[in-house]
Amino acid sequence: MTDKVTIHIDGVAHEVQAGINLLQACLNLQIDMPYFCWHPAMGSAGSCRQCAVMHYQNAEDTRGRLVMSCMTPVMDGMIVSMANEKAVGFRATAIEAIMTNHPHDCPVCEEGGDCHLQDMTLISGHIKRQYPGTKRTHLNQQLGPFLNHEMNRCIGCYRCVRFYKDYCGGDDFNVFSSRNRIYFGRAESGTLENEFAGNLAEVCPTGVFTDKPFSLKFSRKWDLATSPTVCTNCSVGCNTYTAERGGVLRKINNRHNADVNAHFLCDRGRYGYEHVNHNDRLEKPWKRNNEQQKVEVLNASSAAKQVTDWFSQGDTVAVGSARSALENNAALLKLAGKGNFYAGVTDVELEQLNLLTQAAHNLSLLSLTNIEKCDALLMVGEDVTHTAPRLALAIRQMTRNAGLDKAAKFGIKPWQDEAVRNIAQDTRSPFYALNTHATRLADVAKQNIYLPPARQLSLLLEVEALLSFPDDKDIASKEAVAIAEDLLAAKKPALVTGTNGANPQILAACIRISTLLAQKNENSGFYCATGQANTMALGILSDSNQGLDALIKRLEDKAPKTLIVMETDLYRYFSDDVLDTLLDKVTNIVVLDQLLTRTAQMADLVLPTTSYAESHGCWINAEGRLQQSFATMAAIKARLPAVQWLQSLSGCHTNEQVLAWCAQTYSELAPVQQLLETSGSDFVIARQPLRSTGRTAINAGIDVKEYPPAQDLGSQLEFSMEGVPAFRQHQLKEFTSPPTGVWSPKWNSSQGINKQLESNDSSNNNGILLFANKTTDASSNLETDKSAISSDGLSICPNHHIYADDELATYSTSIQQLIPTATATMCQAQADSLGVKNGEPVAFKGKGHSLELPCAIMPDVCEGVVLVPMQQFRQLGNKATLTTAVRSAS
Amino acid sequence: MPELIQPNKNKPGQHPIIPTNETVELSESEIKQINDALHHVPFASGASIDALKIIQQHRGWVSDACLKALSDHMKVSTADLDAVATFYNLIFRQPVGKVVLHPCDGISCDLMGGKKIRKCLSKKLGIGNGQTTADDQFTLIPLPCLGACDKAPVMIASEKLFELMDENSVANILKDLSSKAGDKS
Ligand code: SF4
Ligand code: SF4
Ligand code: FES
Ligand code: FES
User: Within 6 Å (CB) of ligand 1, which residues are found?
Assistant: First the structure.
């Protein structure tokens, strides 16, 4: 239990958490204290002067003095007044002064209706503008595909620069000039480089930074229907709000989950949704008619019957998906049987997943919040900024802990941001980045170590040995000694790695090190980023050795009669040369997918499935956290979730039935039972906000007729405004699903979340941890293959990229603009030894596929390594080789 | 005497050329001075003000290209350097004349007729605040309180404080300064 203190606000005594600031305490108490510059994740700056209250020394003090509540720690017995005339006057004047330069453009401002400044202006009582003078104006900048910039609306709260520079470590954004002319932006127009820039749309309390893709399909917050969803763009599983109107997904906002993403998303997650609205979405079941050389449109029942017919002929093989819900995968597996179910990931990844799931019960898998609390961290084998972006932001915060501790020695609280940063300077908790090349976290690392995989492995073996025998320093490298010392000295050491480096040996070594650490220090922990949003579900469901490479072998050995491929584009993993001939041998190819992928084009029968925004489902993130995502809109056209397409074959007609089967069949999934028991209450929940006027006008832009809302049979949520509105939901304890939006009385903007943080911290809506039960069975099969260390040839390694790697995210036009051109990246020395120059082609071969990429020379790539973009790496496979480095004809 | 930038006769203070995309190389003596400054601080960013002053001392003002060159040399981002440069009134991010006039616009000086002095300067030179004369001799940048209230109204120019000014002294001061400006070049 946290310590409590009693404070008196306007004569009323309240018990609040000790150590926090007065502003936060007031918000926790549901008091509408206005503020701008304070942010729960970034602490206080004291720059906006909006949160002033009168503070009295003692009961005799009648004059008091004005203090900023965000800068004032709560103290036992403290006496303050918010209603004091002077305090009220001060706050009203402060906002009036701010508003002298703020344009009166709410009607054309995209923040309007979701604007913290509007809310605060009203709460502070500044109703009438009196300033007759001119307002200062600014030129805006082009900041890239994600954000609009409208500087005239700036109120100078400094949140943006504190977020971008201090919190995310971006150095291409700052505050310029002084006084009235103060300007927030880049030194010159250009795309914001930081991967978390999109958060500025939510961090900025005004309409300076707004969501640019949203602009193209803008709608006011009160016209948007929203549901709690889980980001499906990577394995972190950030919690999101997905908002729609008229069947079009409009935007994604952060949804606070104290254990995962808390207040921030990455830009892949925020903008990677356009596949939902995409032109390539499949709408109807299609059947290929080879005789007539045409495609027939089927209705739902005949399409389902067709699958049943083919299935009943036997000899069916199924492929599951890392980007589909657990229910869909489980249903497919149930009908196909384990031996005929192949996970939609490479064999290598599956091997790693098996290592991970076997060891998971022995390791303590950290949440992002716990990573932030660590005081020493080793990141191995991949740059998580590109593979699990939000995790990188957590690691960046973790490096601040030594500085926070230093400040704490001076009695400074962690939220006293400026003071902490002043004292901390570059005091950082030890963070080591071990990778083939520079990571985006290089600036906060104690040491960046760039080595080829084989040498990474031998370094890890040294660290492992040192953890058991710390005195054997003379036989180990100084890097290994430093790492081992820091890990052993730390109170909460952590190891972060991932499966995206495609190196099971390294993962096994990391697991062994973490196991050793866990034996020595029960507060130590581990995180392994996996490939896609539901890769972990496949890891739990499927047998080892049943990945896509195994599927190819099976197709080569003997083509099955029917192949059902669900939401996996095989062409992302294998080249045309390999697949075309193999697929030709299969009699019936059934593809269930949302989009017309290359694989779908090869199908004999295509069944259109729903996107995450049109279906309920469970997603298991990299730490084994199972989270439910709720449909935002009803599926349109003939789209159905795979569970429904397959219901007659799997025997499970609803998600609940599939989950019940999972809970019985898989020990790891037994905790899912909790979900089944808790779901269901007497209330229904509204997705649309409560509207007092024009209550059913949301669709009037399309048709003035009022159609009955679609029915949602799978959850308590309604596709209408009927039911308990969002602002009531979090107050009602019987609700087991997260609220359908952030609203709070008088707080229309999502900043209202800051009044709910205390209850969110203790919420049981943060997901179910599947690996929470510790077992003691020793992890097996983790020996290092000694030959893996001694490989001295050239390593071809994947080069991950936040915007290039996730299949669905690349359907977003905003994201596409930031995908770099594919190159074979290497250091100068490596290029010299291969005899290639910048821009010259380099040829590769692997998995029956060959391709050429132009050479790009980059510093900070280790010698002995050539980096290939993840997409090309996947197609070439782990055993790719460099065929020739052809000199261009000059 | 080096060629002056061709003045634009119509609009005082507007330079026809503000190079934007040129690249600049720091001179040896600039680099030496900047390195000295870097030597004295634990973090490169701590030397930002000094480095900007050094550039300005050599070139009269700090162009975008200089900022870029400085950023490459100091390993401090241009955004961070520009944040410092634009914060301070006396780091010039636009070309200025040979002499920068800083008449005081603080309260004491205004009580003692500072406003008249500034008006007079403006009129004599034909430029407003922040502008530069067409012949590149003078730039006018008023500053609040120069710390010499007892001698108000005052002005600083060419590192010299002019005290107890009145409208009559303005002409002489300008004449004096412009001949000095001539010497300088
Ligand atoms: S741009 Fe927004 S976040 Fe930044 S200072 Fe202005 S109002 Fe605050
Ligand atoms: S880190 Fe991953 S889960 Fe989180 S928002 Fe980004 S892509 Fe989505
Ligand atoms: S929130 Fe307290 S001063 Fe801004
Ligand atoms: S007001 Fe001019 S010097 Fe003080």
Answer: A 154-160, 184, 204-206, 208
Q: Give the ligand 3 atom nearest the CA of A48.
A: 4
Are A655 and A679 in contact by the 8 Å Cβ rule? The answer is no
Residue A138: name the closest of A83, A104, A99, A185 by CA: A185
> Where do the domains of chain A lie, and which CATH numbers do they carry?
4-96 (3.10.20.740), 101-215 (3.30.70.20), 353-528 (3.40.228.10), 790-882 (2.40.40.20)
Is the pLDDT confidence value at A463 over 60?
A: yes
B83 in A contact zone (CB under 8 Å): yes
Instruction: Give the per-residue pLDDT at A679.
Output: 57
Q: Touching check for B20 and chain A: CB below 8 Å? A: no
pTM, two decimals, is 0.94
Ligand nearest to the Cα of A229, by number: 2
CB-hemisphere CA count at 13 Å for B127?
24
Cβ count within 10 A of residue B41: 12
Position of tokens 């985006």? A440
Mean pLDDT, chain B cut into blocks of 10 residues (185 residues total): 38 46 87 96 95 95 94 96 95 93 95 95 94 93 94 94 93 87 56
- The phi and psi torsions of A149 (rounded to 5 degrees) equal -135, 120
Query: How far does CA B177 lie from the centroid of its chain?
Result: 15
Dump pLDDT digits (tens) for A85-128. 999 999 999 999 999 999 989 999 999 999 999 999 999 988 88
How far is it, in rounded angstroms, from Cα A478 to Cα A660? Answer: 52
Q: How far off is chain B from A5, nearest CA to CA, in Å?
A: 41
Yes or no: say if A863 and A796 are a contact pair by the CB < 8 Å rule. Answer: no
> Residue A455 pLDDT more than 80?
yes
| ipTM of this complex | 0.89
b/e A356-394 (16+ beta carbons within 10 angstroms → b) = bbbbbbbbbbbbbbbbbbbbbbbbbbbbbbbbbbbbbbb
Q: State the Cα–Cα distance between residues A151 and A513, nearest whole angstrom.
A: 50
CA distance A884 to B98: 62
Nearest CA in chain B to A165: B80
**A100 and A86 in contact (C-beta within 8 Å)?**
no
Is some CB atom of chain B closer than 8 A to the CB atom of A183?
yes
Sign of CA dihedral B82, B86, B91, B96: positive
Cβ-based contacts of A188 with chain B (< 8 Å): 64
- DSSP, collapsed to helix, strand or coil, labels residue A595 as strand
Cβ atoms of A560 and A589 within 8 Å: the answer is no
Task: Write the CB contacts of A218 (distance below 8 Å, at least 6 apart in sequence).
Answer: A110, A250
DSSP strand pairing (B138-140 vs B99-103): parallel
**Chain A nearest C-alpha distance from B79 (Å):** 5
